[in-house]
Amino acid sequence: MGFSSSSSGFPSFYLVLLFLVGTSIVSADFYNEFDITWGNGRGKILNGDLLTLSLDNSSGSGFESRNEYMFGKIDMQLKLVAGNSAGTVTAYYLSSKGSNWDEIDFEFLGNLSGDPYILHTNVFSQGKGNREQQFYLWFDPTADFHTYSILWNPKSIVFSVDGTPIREFKNAESNGVPFPKDQPMRIHSSLWNADDWATRGGLVKTDWSKAPFTASYRNFKADACVVSSGKSSCGGSDNPAWLSEELDNTKQERLRWAQKNYMIYNYCSDSKRFPQGFPPECKSA
Ligand SMILES: *[C@@H]1O[C@H](CO)[C@@H](O)[C@H](O)[C@H]1NC(C)=O
Ligand SMILES: *[C@@H]1O[C@H](CO)[C@@H](O)[C@H](O)[C@H]1NC(C)=O
């Protein structure tokens, strides 16, 4: 159902208007929001409210958002590759372009049936990453859809899972750490083979007899500022609440709970990797 094909006249004009005004509130139509960018038919949008990516022995697949965003609160529900997903990686991230790009990453590293996925996160600013934190999840991410969210505003970046914050990357520009805040980013996702490193560091290879591997997406929702031709538009509001949102006490407690019980790697405590001292943002991360 595309608006471009609807007949002209008053009602459809209001429909379009309603759609534009409502776009930051209702879960949006995948046909309008995303393009399948690679995979030669392995990525599919079904009915506008469901998108699937698949991977087999000749290719993975991926999509990206039509919009570029600069700050936002973005939710997506994902259901990951089930069964033996070892070797597969489902990446879901925001990224700008160029050699000094910014990036906010969720990557889901598959595993053998019954063994836990790893949720890998990273933040790049001006082309520099190396800020990995990894988690196990408190549920089976292949059994059902769960919501993975990124809150990105000038003060911080918060990664959440079903509303529970798992990671906060604060703006530490005052300590000389560049923060992503000058380059609009698109949403990207891809499903690909990474059996050289993903599962137990590359020990477990992809079992191609289980292909195709499929990940599914639904209920995309963006409260976000869309940048187009140099102009930013924040869903009808000049100063939406999420643009200055910070973690309240309850959320901070949830964050500590997730990190205490589910974090399995934190670059900020990997002293072998940083013998000269931790990166400056680790003081606040
Ligand atoms: C890829 O998978 C197909 C279908 O299972 C199989 O017929 C084909 O031989 C495989 N190709 C390679 C290069 O493994
Ligand atoms: C896979 O399972 C093994 C064994 O439980 C675990 O060590 C590993 O962290 C799991 N995840 C990945 C992506 O390797």
Automatic annotation (TrEMBL):
> Where is it predominantly found?
secreted
Q: According to the UniProt entry, where is the signal peptide?
A: 1-28
Q: Tell me one GO biological process term.
A: cell wall organization
GH16 domain mapped to chain residues: 5-217
Keyword vocabulary terms for this entry: Apoplast, Cell wall, Cell wall biogenesis/degradation, Disulfide bond, Glycoprotein, Glycosidase, Hydrolase, Secreted, Signal, Transferase
Fetch the PANTHER family from UniProt: XYLOGLUCAN ENDOTRANSGLUCOSYLASE/HYDROLASE PROTEIN 8-RELATED
Task: Report what the protein is called.
Answer: Xyloglucan endotransglucosylase/hydrolase
Q: What class of enzyme is it?
A: transferase
Q: Cite the active-site annotation.
A: 103 (nucleophile), 107 (proton donor)
Its PTM note reads: Contains at least one intrachain disulfide bond essential for its enzymatic activity.
Concerning its family, UniProt says: Belongs to the glycosyl hydrolase 16 family.
Compartment(s):
Secreted, Cell wall; Secreted, Extracellular space, Apoplast
Q: Name one Pfam family in it.
A: Glyco_hydro_16
Has UniProt tagged this entry with the keyword Hydrolase?
A: yes
Which Gene Ontology cellular-component terms appear in the entry?
A: apoplast
Q: What is its EC number?
A: 2.4.1.207
Work out whether the entry's keyword set contains rRNA-binding. Answer: no
Q: Which GO terms describe its molecular function?
A: hydrolase activity, hydrolyzing O-glycosyl compounds; xyloglucan:xyloglucosyl transferase activity
Glycosylated residues, per the record, are 111
Q: What does this protein do?
A: Catalyzes xyloglucan endohydrolysis (XEH) and/or endotransglycosylation (XET). Cleaves and religates xyloglucan polymers, an essential constituent of the primary cell wall, and thereby participates in cell wall construction of growing tissues.
